[in-house]
UniProtKB/TrEMBL annotation:
It catalyses: L-homoserine + ATP = O-phospho-L-homoserine + ADP + H(+). GO terms for biological process: threonine biosynthetic process. Residues 204-264 form the GHMP kinase C-terminal domain. InterPro entries: GHMP_kinase_C_dom (IPR013750), GHMP_kinase_C_sf (IPR036554), GHMP_kinase_N_dom (IPR006204), GHMP_knse_ATP-bd_CS (IPR006203), Homoserine_kinase (IPR000870), Ribosomal_Su5_D2-typ_SF (IPR020568), Ribsml_uS5_D2-typ_fold_subgr (IPR014721). It comes from Paenibacillus prosopidis. The gene is thrB. One of its GO terms (molecular function) is homoserine kinase activity. This is Homoserine kinase. It holds the Pfam family GHMP_kinases_C.
Length: 325
């Protein structure tokens, strides 16, 4: 173990997919990387604009989560060398915290010979994140349908349809999950609960069977998006009108503020959809970045090597060419 170096590449994720609040997640082709090895003194290197302001001492989330794995496995590894680079923007609704938690769990587990099963990692990740949707997608890849009762999380993974693509519009402001959850009511009506059970069930069936045409009706939601709309000006217009510009459906990504449109790869005018999202946000005074992302069918990619191997170099050298252009 002392000589081992682990590098993991973890996908971002979009949660809820509209009606599946805290239940549905899909991994996306945007990534973060964590390198971890045993050291004599803990050192944390954070690379990239997304990592600005995060702690570089033992209070860092990656270090703390790694220690949970060692404790669970009954081993002691107090000092770690950790490097991280991420293309996943923080607090924008693309699962940055879930990717950090999953990456730390997977890297720490691989460092000590993988004593913990994926299911165990999923249970820990869900308890840490507080809901299974983002962590399930980052850990298993593809589309993950999950349920958590506060003690145990169960899931089923669905292979994403080969024609499914997504367009995300990432507003230039942050919105923490905590703040976006505070906007939600403590109770909802039976009519709204029935509405969401119907849409969420329809969406899962559509994604599993490849009936993409029904997605537009299935992505509707009354549980969280209406209450969060005031935090994301322009959101309601985008959700209501995205289909007119060729989207299969649209939703708030996770807790927002990112908006996500599901698109058929054969959509004839992708530029028009992109312009519609950007223009709608701009009319509200919001600058945004758009990215075309594919569903990521795989969970974390794990590389374990001996530190003495010739292949070693800095994390940035290793992943160069793989990062977002
Ligand atoms: N690599 C990291 N190292 C340490 N902390 C991180 C890292 N990545 C994310 N975090 C923590 O997670 C917080 C963001 O979590 P939050 O749940 O608010 O947003 P998100 O995960 O990006 O979006 P969403 O959950 O809506 O998809 C950051 O402010 C930071 O505290
Ligand atoms: N299901 C979560 C995802 C964000 O972490 C929410 O919408 O609050």
């Amino acid at each position: 173990m002392n000589n081992r170096k682990v590098i993991v590449k973890i996908p971002a994720s979009t949660a809820n997919l509209g009606p599946g609040f805290d239940t549905l997640g899909m991994a996306l082709s945007l990534y973060s990387w964590i390198e971890m090895s045993v050291s004599e003194r803990t050192e944390i290197q954070l690379f990239g604009d997304q990592m600005k302001g995060l702690p570089r001492d033992k209070s860092n989330l990656i270090y703390k989560v790694a220690q949970l794995v060692f404790k669970e496995a009954g081993v002691s590894v107090p000092e770690l060398l950790i490097s991280m680079y991420s293309d996943i923007p923080l607090t924008r609704g693309l699962g940055s915290s879930a990717s950090a938690i999953v990456g730390a769990l997977v890297a720490a587990n691989a460092l000590i010979g993988s004593p913990l099963t994926d299911d165990k990692l999923f249970q820990i990740a869900t308890a840490l994140e507080g809901h299974p949707d983002n962590v399930g997608a980052s850990l298993f890849g593809g589309i993950v349908v999950s349920a958590w009762d506060g003690e145990r999380a169960d899931y089923v993974r669905i292979e994403p349809h080969h024609k499914l693509e997504t367009l995300v519009a990432i507003p230039a402001f942050q919105l923490s999950t905590e703040k976006a959850r505070h906007a939600l009511p403590a109770q909802i009506s039976m009519a709204d609960a029935v509405f969401n059970v119907g849409r969420s069930s329809l969406l899962v069936a559509a994604l599993a069977s490849g009936e993409l045409g029904i997605i537009r009706h299935a992505m509707k939601d009354r549980l969280h998006q209406p209450y969060r709309a005031a935090l994301i000006p322009g959101m309601t217009t985008i959700l209501e009108r995205a289909h007119q510009f060729g989207a299969l459906g649209a939703a708030l990504s996770g807790a927002g503020p990112t908006l996500i449109a599901f698109v058929d790869a054969d959509c004839p005018d992708k530029k028009a959809l992109e312009r519609f999202l950007l223009d709608t946000l701009k009319m509200e005074g919001i600058e945004a970045e758009t990215l075309w992302l594919s569903p990521c069918a795989e969970g974390p990619e794990i590389t374990v090597e001996q530190r003495s191997e010739q292949t070693s170099g800095s994390l940035l050298d290793r992943i160069k060419g793989d990062v977002k252009a």
